[in-house]
Write a structure and sequence with these properties.
mainly beta; Jelly Rolls; five-stranded mixed β-sheet; 39 strands
Length: 505
Amino acid sequence: MKKTIRLGSFLLAFLLLVCTLPVTACAASTSYDLSRALFRSAETQKRVVSYAKGEKATLTFTPQYTAEYTLSFFVHNPKGESGRNAHASLTFPGGKVQEGEYPYRPNAKDYSRPYITATLEKGKTYTYHVWGWLPTSEASDVDITFISGASGALTEELGLRAYLQGKTVFNGYNPQAVLNELKLLVGFKNATQPLEWCYKNAGGVLSINGADVIVDMSGCGAEGMNTMAVYYQGYRAEAKFEIRSHEHNYEAGDSVLPTCTTAGYTPYFCTICADEVHRDIVPALGHNYKEKSRALTKATTSKDGKRTATYACTHTGCKAKYTKTLQTYYKASNIKLNKTAYTYNGKVQKPSVTVKNSKGKALKNGTDYTVSYPKGMKNVGKYTVKVTLKGNYSGSKSMTFNINPKGTSVSKVTAAKKGFKVTWKKQTTQTTGYEVQYSTSSNFKKGNKTVTVSKNKTTSKSVSKLSAKKKYYVRVRTYKTVKIGGKSVKLYSGWSVAKSVTTKK
């Protein structure tokens, strides 16, 4: 098996593909992108560009790690024609330019020299220009080469290490299967936690300080000694391991008891390689639930309630449990009085109460709620009834009803000059006074005027300054002033039957 694994493989594959595409003749200041990383020490990457007389070839690139690079170009002159000097320059981020010239070499079919050597920083974009009079009248090819600086020996500062979880010998029937489970740890000096890499998950990205790491396993997987190499920013570390085939020799270990959710088994371990298999399987026990507690969330006038039970598994060490709703108590959202207004009759008057849940089911008085009535409920006034929920319900609701004064009736209405006089029956019991209302509308829906008579013994009222020869409708009602919440409030009887009158001229 021969295979090289590189982390960040998708990006590298794409960039490598780009590097292999043919380059055609280009106009002045044509730009090329060169973003592929040079991971290994002294690694070389080449670009071929073409340009004609009077033009510039421009090549941009972004190093993937900080290192020293050497840039050179190679001029093709197959006919040995004469020409002028060729030039090149390197522009740094910020505008700094490093440049020079390649001297003219007459009759040389090809010539090449290292031209610029500089330390370039990771992630920054640089621009390399090539221009000058080339030997031919047509566009010529120029090879531009990038060479990463050699790292030499590992430094104490970097301290790159690669190791195989402390194991050097791996045993198994299938070397490839062993390789799939191989785990590599990569670390640096003073690192708190090494990075783990596995052959089986080679597509994952492994990086140190934001820079990609390459793991090279070329030639690994066969029986015998294998060498794994790690590259990082031009530095190299390696680890060796041995793959050796054998037949397993299993011995039984301590049995594992089944739980509610997992099967029991007896583990068998290979005495040569520590491979583990499970035999003598015992099915999982399954849960044995019993009720442990109950809880009640009472319903209110706005929220449903429920009674729940909690069940727990009785098997030793199992903490599984669940909660079940036994019954739902729907909110008591419909609480009403059967009547909210009465007329004074000298007797106690009290409304009945109905209480229903949100599903329309009537609740039981004494079981689900109680009703509290105020004292009195005989004289004219406003009275409060309170419903208090109980049992599986919680909360309360207060409602009011009125006992209004007894009404009166119009005896007669006599026409007067631009007015009238109305007479009614006296009503002094539980009455403070009267209101007289008149209108040109028989249904009293517009143009109404109301006159208050503050003495309950007064039984007539004259109204003047009306329109002459105009028909008016007149009605009367009683009122009583009572104290509600510390304020004086008028409670009214119903209106009497209206009588009509036409004013005189």
